[in-house]
Amino acid sequence: MYGRDPWGGALEINADSATDDDRSRNLQDFDRSALSRQLDETQQSWLLGPGEQKKKKYVDLGCIVCSRTVFKWIVISILLSGSIAGLVTLIVKLVPRHNNSAPPPDSYTKALHKALMFFNAQRSGPLPKHNNVSWRGNSGMRDGLSDPGAAHASLVGGFYDAGDAIKFNFPGAFAMTMLSWSVIEYSAKYEAAGELNHAKDIIKWGADYFLKTFNSSADTISLIHAQVGKGDTSTGPSNPNDHYCWMRPEDIDYPRPVYDCSSCSDLAAEMAAALAAASIVFKDNKLYSQKLVKGATTLFKFSRTQRGRYSPGGSDPSKFYNSTGYYDEYVWGGAWMYYATGNNSYLQLATTLGIAKHAGAFRGGQDYGVLSWDNKLAGAQVLLSRLRLFLSPGYPYEDVLQSYHNQTNIVMCSYLPAFRSFNRTRGGLIQLNHGRPQPLQYVVNAAFLAAVYSDYLTAADIPGWNCGPTFFSTEALRNFARTQINYILGKNPMKMSYLVGYGSHYPKHVHHRGASIPKNKIKYSCKGGWKWRDSPRPNPNVLVGAMVAGPDKRDMFHDVRTNYNYTEPTLAGNAGLVAALVSLSGGDTGGIDKNTMFSAVPPMFPTPPPPPAPWNP
């Protein structure tokens, strides 16, 4: 039987004589001869056994076809890369880490944390849970309602002024204005120190209280509740009050009279400045900011229509925070009202030549250049120099703005050691109050003015200023500010930190009722607390962050609780200290925020000056 080999050649099969083995051998012989020519891969796969099949040269991956060799090296590379990555990951996890943490805070930042805590200790009213002063509690919960002489609205809240429990609006408003100024200029530094929200919380606590002390929803008012509590002790034990008695604020049980004023331009303009400045701090909270502007507008209008000082002779305020005039508050308050509203009428008032002269802008004097709760002229001139440096509104404001700017330069010269406008102690403390007691509150304000003005010049790309023929760089101002604050923090002949809780050597007998009486569930009466006032022992409660009144003109300090000229802190003093500390914190980095102050000021389109008079030959 013959069959046909489909791939070529004859295939003979002998069915009769061949055995199965013979047939198998014959078939294999014929197969090999038939494969003497080259077969394609399909034919080979049909014919050859599994062990004899030829390996493919290419790999079909579905979407692509690649060489088997290339595919092999790709797989090897992937496996090798994965192994290396795994090894690196293992090494990174096993090797000890050295975190690049932020540098430690400088001395000014550390002191800033302390100084802000003082305001927590001075709070009146129901305390928030985050107040963090363990020995304080709710107090003054009947303020405004316990006045036996008249019926008032609730005046709960605010801050106690110093070591007593009186709430004075005049220095308190100045303190809030200074804090707001520092937050507006240095919010980034507050943020870096982790204290921005704390500072804003303090400002809001003060602003909310001021809104209670007059009809803040009205356009026109006729009086302000200027003070809660009484300090005059001339009537003796028959009339217990906040100075005669020595009690924890939480235990006060005597009546607290309210002092009202119906013609108080100085107080109203200062309160307007405080609310206006706070409105810029809270500009992102539109409703609250508008509420503050509304109140400030009402107050400033009142200051202009009801002329007079808030502290006439014989009044209780005149014995403690007597105001010497109100024209400086017109310039100061007018500047803040302009920044808060953008209304040119306020700028026009602040740059009115007659008002500037009445404020003492051009007459000098021994206290010229001293910023305080009483006289704000030096601060107002720096604040308006800012406007000239960055926006330059031109006519019709330029002449007076230029005068303010020139006077600011003169004030800055007077702070420098090269000039003799103010004496200095042997330890280097500038005597801005000419040797009188309680010097530090004036020193910290000057340090802040010097630092912030230095930052203004730097931001305006101005390297310095001239004092007569001598040029001084902006660094001279920062050096002045640093040396004065360093003195307060311990670099002085007494080696004493005048900031309580800062360093290891600070006053232990602070003139402060709450700090000097233990919180031991015993209520001490008006005179029963005198034993704590007169005790030679250190205060049982540390009044962290309080800047005391300071040393005398010989650099001497007496840590005696009964001598308030050395050991009593105040709101206004601490506000100036906070402002100076934040301006110096973080080294020379940061600088001011140029734009926030002008957030409500419209674009400037200066009015051209009038043409000159026609020439007559």
Automatic annotation (TrEMBL):
The enzyme's E.C. designation: 3.2.1.4
Coiled-coil ranges per UniProt: none
Keyword Nucleotidyltransferase among UniProt keywords: no
Limits of the Glycoside hydrolase family domain: 108-581
InterPro entries assigned: 6-hairpin_glycosidase_sf, 6hp_glycosidase-like_sf, Glyco_hydro_9, Glyco_hydro_9_Asp/Glu_AS, Glyco_hydro_9_His_AS
SUPFAM superfamilies for the chain: Six-hairpin glycosidases
Active site, UniProt feature: H511, D559, E568
UniProt keyword annotations, A-Z: Carbohydrate metabolism, Cellulose degradation, Glycosidase, Hydrolase, Membrane, Polysaccharide degradation, Transmembrane, Transmembrane helix
PROSITE patterns (alphabetical): GH9_2, GH9_3
Listed transmembrane segments: 73-95
Group of enzyme by EC: hydrolase
Catalytic reaction equation(s): Endohydrolysis of (1->4)-beta-D-glucosidic linkages in cellulose, lichenin and cereal beta-D-glucans
Family the entry assigns: Belongs to the glycosyl hydrolase 9 (cellulase E) family.
Protein name, UniProt field: Endoglucanase
Organism expressing this protein natively: Picea sitchensis (Sitka spruce)
